[in-house]
Amino acid sequence: MTAIDVGRAPDVEPGHVPRTRLPRLLHPGAWWLWAAGLAVAASRTTNPLLLLLIVAVAAYVVAARRSPSPWARSFSVFLKLGLVIVAIRVVFQVIVSAPIGTTVVFTLPALTLPEVFAGVRLGGAVTLESLVAALYDGMRLATILICVGAANSLASPARLLKTVPAALYEFGLSVVIAVTFAPQLVADLDRIRTARRLRGRTIGGVRGTAAVALPVLEGALERSVTLAAAMDSRGYGRQAARSTTLRRVTGASLIAALVLVIIGTYALLDASAPPALGVPMLAVGLGLSILGFALAGRRSVRTRYRPDPWGLAEWGVTLCAVITGTTLVWLSIAGVTGLIAPVDPIAWPAVPALAVAGILVSVLPAFISPPAPGRAP
Amino acid sequence: MSPVIEFDHVTITYSGADRATLADVTLDIDEGELVLVVGETGSGKSTLLRAINGLVPHFTGGTVHGRVRVAGRDTSTHHPRDLADVVGVVPQDPMSSFVTDTVEEELAYGMECLGIPASTMRRRVEETLDLLGLADVRDRALVSLSGGQRQRVAIGAVLTSHPRVIVLDEPTSALDPGAAEEVLATLQRLVHDLGITVVLAEHRLERVLEYADRVVYVPGAAAPVVVGSPRDIMATSAVAPPVVRLGRLAQWDPLPLSVRDARRHAGGLREQLHATPPRASVSSGVTVPVVSIQRTRASYGAVHALRGVTLDVATGEIVALMGRNGAGKSTLLSTLVGLRRPNAGTVRIDGIDPATLTGPKLIGRVGLVPQDSSDLLSRDSVAAECSDADRDADVAAGSAARLLHRLAPEVPLDMHPRDLSEGQRLVLALVVILVATPAVILLDEPTRGLDYPTKERLSQLLRDLAASGHAIVVATHDVELAAETATRVVVLADGEVVADGPTAEVLVGSPLFAPQVAKVLVGPDAVDVPLTVAEVRDALAVSG
Fold first, then answer.
1. Closest by Cα among A177, A140, A151 to A162
2. Do residues B397 and B498 both lie within one domain?
């Protein structure tokens, strides 16, 4: 009557394994760098064709390499969110009109705000040029967001946080727990609304909301206590014995590092301070902080289960990101036409071949990274 | 060999309590024992379990007199985290204790905390995946697992640290009979093959009694704890599974603990019962159909929870809705109170679509006690809850309090609902629903965490309600409750009705759903098999 398979071989790889590479998840850091490269590229252009190309590249890689876990399905949510952003940007353009171009599409009743609000004009004539400019601008914002979404579905933030150094482990864990608790709160809210209906109360109103909030918070608190007890029972927070000297050195180096970093940053930003002061101070401060973290990390006895390796594929993906990012930054600094789409007068933008090539480099991770486990290639 | 767990004159008093929860407990548990902790709800079973790894008092507060030693370590000087390598604790609701989000990471979490080398961790995770039959779901997110799988992951998560003791608090209470068997078989295997000491608390003794080496009976009210062999304890215990009560009734010696034992004695009783006239069918007065579900379909995204269910329920009926976790039982109940509209088909209560009703109009027709009955309660005292219920239902002030007094006179009105026992809270939730006098009463998994005496009172209450003209639908995994209470059983599987008929007919025919008494007494001709000890007693009384 039991469902335990005694003789099953341990997780045999299915028969369709590709000849050369074993399926594994790429290091989350590599995916986030890849997304950052694309996002930097997107931030440098308003050319709708290039932006659409970036979205297409991101979507293609996500489709090819995401894992079968539920949070990997979040990409479509980000796509929809992108559309919402574009819509909001255009609507704002209609309300707060900007004097670009002369092709009036329609005219709204105008209202000029008093001097206090810098004389912003609401309504008035809405020009085609301003609408197109808003559309391009919204697309750029949306594309950056979609890049974040792509990284999110390729490597969940929880996985990324797991790679933080041991000294920051506790911080990482609290973020992970917070992330998992958000959906729980929504579920709680749902349960309590259900209960209110079952008791024949109408939902809504300030009193209704207040009556719902208390049990939800109670539930969340209770869950945190349960979780804390469970974590303690499983050994969370066990510490290695440390000498007093080591503890003092750790504390002192972290405080000194913080002070140096603050002074160094200030000196760098303040033009009147000598640059010879800022750079070395910042460098020493950063060095000390690394030492402090390393020492603090020794306090914890934790080990890590199957740490994500950083191999050739990770370097490859990072290189693609760097190429994409630097190409677009370099082109924009060099002032190549086509990165900024002309809106006044509206014209079909030129498509610089170099920019296209730079963006297309970022589609390579779909081929050079190992396939995600648990999915047919 | 020295015992692995030693309780030495332990008395535990929570702060603010006027008497000790556990008094003067002395108990030794040896390596490789499976010890079952039994007792009524609120008797201190959980306190006993939580004292083993030091959660009491380090986490809960309170005062502990005496010593608790685990593998030679004193819990007064060792925190739960310092005991994590020798004691693994599996809490009641595994989902609330998961720290990570995938199966493999969860299995590794405890080892990571203990600082076990990466290569050892890898090997142990693989071994545990195989041992618990979880290899197929190793990459899956924990939220996507079934109840039985979650429970096995929770066991695996403590097992990877290679503890000498595993402590489980009601590991099967939320599981359907099949999944519960799965988990218990796993535990037995740990005890037999790996020599791990297992201490578990459980209410549904019919599932675990036969596996136990020793039983610790916690009578509650700080009365002394009784330790002994299952047979000795069961001879007198107030909490006992049906097979034991049948054995006591028939005065079988030695007392049977499992269906197998009992069947050896049962020949005589079977013949005696066969000779008695078949029991009178449940007298049903005039019944009026009040619930009508026609070809109802409901889905959540891609999951089709209900695929064309047709069901009628009349007044005076008690329908037990059974089926494995995720079969669509809860969905069916929520369509009946109009919490969700079906995608197709019709749902009618008294001829009205419940989704169109709100307020007193809704609760005057149909009431649901949800799985966690405390969801319904939001005030800080029983009295306030009762007066709220009067207002919600638009009835005379004091009605709910009077009803509560009739059903459970011992419930103090000034208490916080959270401090009531599980059973008392359930009755309070029922009162809140009943005061609006709905024609249809729905209960979702009401016996979770209830002991036998409380369950018996609930059964009696439901039978009385049905007799007074209510129609009752109970979704439950508890076959004994269904056997004692239901007039009809409906089995759902994958959103379809796969069986619908009188309780005896449906339950006796199924190996998983048959109650213990029926398993013992079923003969070659499976007709008129009694389902409960009470039925056997009545039949014997008739035959003299």
1. A177
2. yes
Q: Which domain holds residue B539?
A: 241-275+526-544
Q: Which of A193, A194, A199, A214 to mutate to test the interface with B (most CBs of B within 10 A)?
A: A199
Q: CA angle, B239 as apex, B237 and B240 as ends, to 5°?
A: 85
ipTM above 0.90, yes or no: no
CB contact under 8 A, A230 and B91: yes
Looking at the complex, does the CB of residue A69 fall below 8 Å from at least one CB of chain B? yes
Residue B308's φ and ψ, nearest 5 degrees, are 75, 65
Of the candidates B21, B97, B5, B94, the one whose C-alpha atom is nearest the C-alpha of residue B54 is B5
Residue B372 buriedness (CB in 10 A; 0-12 / 13-18 / 19+):
middle
Task: Give the closest-approach CA distance of B401 to chain A in angstroms.
Answer: 16
Domain-embedded: residue A80 = yes
- Phi-psi bin for B346: left (phi > 0), alpha (psi -120 to 50), beta? beta
A63 within 8 A of A154, measured Cβ to Cβ: no
To the nearest whole angstrom, how far is the Cα of B542 from the nearest Cα of chain A?
Answer: 38
Is B378 in Cβ contact with A214 (below 8 Å)? Answer: yes
My answer on whether B311 and B261 are in the same domain is: no
Residues 123-162 of A with CB under 8 A from B: 156, 158
Residue A98 domain-assigned (yes or no): yes
Question: How crowded is residue B122: how many other Cβ atoms within 10 Å of its Cβ?
Answer: 14
Per-residue pLDDT of B266-280, as tens digits, reads 888 888 887 665 554
Q: Quick: pLDDT tens for B100-141.
A: 878 998 999 999 989 899 999 999 999 999 988 899 888 888
Q: How many domains does chain B have?
A: 3
- CATH number of domain containing B331: 3.40.50.300
| Minimum distance, in Å, between the CA of residue B515 and any CA atom of chain A | 16
Backbone phi, psi, residue A152, to 5° = -60, -40
One domain, residues B245 and B153: no
